[in-house]
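Sample pair:
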Amino acid sequence: LADGRFYWPRGIALTWEGYLVVCDRGNHRVQVFDPNDGTFVSSFGTQGSGNGKLDMPDGIVCTTYGDIPSRCYVTEMGNDRVTVIIPVESLVGPEGPQGATGPQGPAGGP
């Protein structure tokens, strides 16, 4: 699982903060890139069904609304669910590309 390498890349989106996020379906993760030069920033997800796990992520959209922090919604083919990443800062850290904490659980789930 080399950083910046893909196995079945799928959905792609831009975060409100300007990062490019790409579903890496075959590697069961989402990768984050700097859109200015394409450098790898971070990734999150490993195969599974629990919190912090993804199974064949297929699509992604990132949104923001007023004072509510940006969030990304990831559809997973293997888990038949939508996972919410809150806040988007967790993808890159509050100070920029520092690492990721990963998904915060299924949308509408406990």
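Strands lie at 9-14, 20-24, 29-33, 40-44, 46-47, 53-54, 57-65, 68-76, 81-85.
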